[in-house]
């Protein structure tokens, strides 16, 4: 029964945490018994079971309970198979979504070598606009996960494609994550490539795209500032914040911190 398998998936994370805390008594139980179930359910015929498996996997990754070897040898190969060009549409959409969500939880080497090539392919998927939309909405997070060199070499060309996509929702998603993409690049790339690209979005024929671009204008401009003098920095959650100067801290020592969030690094489109 799918409901039984779904319920089982929901119990996997707490069981895994218990086994981790009791590892001397159960040193290999999670890797031998539970992890294979999670991997198998990622390809279950029932979509509710798959969704529960995906959520369980993300929790396990967030809690750092999955071994690097299992990520590279079991999880990533399954996701690459599910997101292959000839894969079922529903499986492909789910796979690209989970790839984007787990990228920030994996090592940069794993993301760049195992997942980035497939992500770049999916950005150009001509069959499913839903796949391209997921890629566009999470583009800033992927840039942050792989760093400047891979972003400029592999991702910026794909970002240009998405910013000129025929579907306006793609262009809107790109406008919303523009600051996060810009922050990952060098000042020269921001000036010579991203600035003209942003102008094209702010002049887009669709008013929803223009509105999203105008909302991202301030955060995009802030990426040109010198952090040491402007006090702007990116927090761990990907938001742009302002760090008060030492003088402000001393004069307001009894006041709450005035760090403010300006805008999230990326946002899902409506």
UniProtKB/TrEMBL annotation:
Single Gene Ontology MF annotation: protein phosphatase regulator activity
Intervals holding HEAT repeats: 115-154
Lineage: Eukaryota, Metazoa, Chordata, Craniata, Vertebrata
Family matches, as Pfam families: HEAT
Species this protein is from: Alaudala cheleensis
PANTHER family given in the database record: SERINE/THREONINE-PROTEIN PHOSPHATASE PP2A 65 KDA REGULATORY SUBUNIT, WW-BINDING DOMAIN-CONTAINING PROTEIN-RELATED
GO cellular component: cytoplasm
Protein name: PP4R1 phosphatase
Superkingdom per UniProt: Eukaryota
Keywords associated with the record: Repeat
């Amino acid at each position: 029964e799918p409901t039984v398998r779904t319920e089982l998936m929901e119990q996997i994370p707490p069981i895994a945490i218990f086994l981790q805390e009791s590892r001397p008594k159960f040193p290999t139980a999670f890797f031998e018994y539970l992890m294979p179930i999670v991997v198998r359910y990622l390809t279950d015929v029932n979509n509710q079971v798959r969704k529960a498996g995906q959520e369980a996997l993300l929790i396990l990754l967030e809690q750092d309970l999955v071994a690097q070897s299992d990520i590279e040898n079991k999880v990533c190969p399954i996701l690459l198979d599910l997101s292959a060009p000839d894969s079922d549409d529903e499986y492909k959409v789910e796979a690209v979504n989970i790839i984007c969500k787990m990228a920030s939880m994996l090592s940069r080497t794993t993301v760049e070598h195992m997942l980035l090539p497939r992500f770049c392919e999916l950005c150009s998927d001509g069959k499913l606009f839903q796949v391209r939309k997921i890629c566009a909405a999470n583009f800033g997070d992927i840039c942050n996960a792989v760093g400047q060199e891979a972003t400029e070499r592999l991702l910026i060309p794909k970002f240009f494609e998405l910013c000129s996509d025929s579907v306006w929702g793609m262009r809107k998603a790109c406008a919303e994550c523009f600051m996060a993409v810009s922050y990952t690049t060098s000042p020269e790339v921001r000036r010579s490539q991203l600035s003209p690209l942003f102008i094209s979005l702010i002049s887009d024929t669709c008013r929803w795209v223009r509105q999203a671009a105008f909302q991202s204008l301030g955060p995009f401009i802030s990426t040109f500032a010198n952090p040491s003098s402007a006090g702007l920095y990116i927090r761990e959650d990907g938001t742009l914040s302002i760090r008060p100067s030492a003088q402000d801290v001393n004069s307001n020592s009894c006041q709450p911190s005035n760090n403010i969030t300006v805008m999230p690094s990326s946002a899902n489109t409506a």
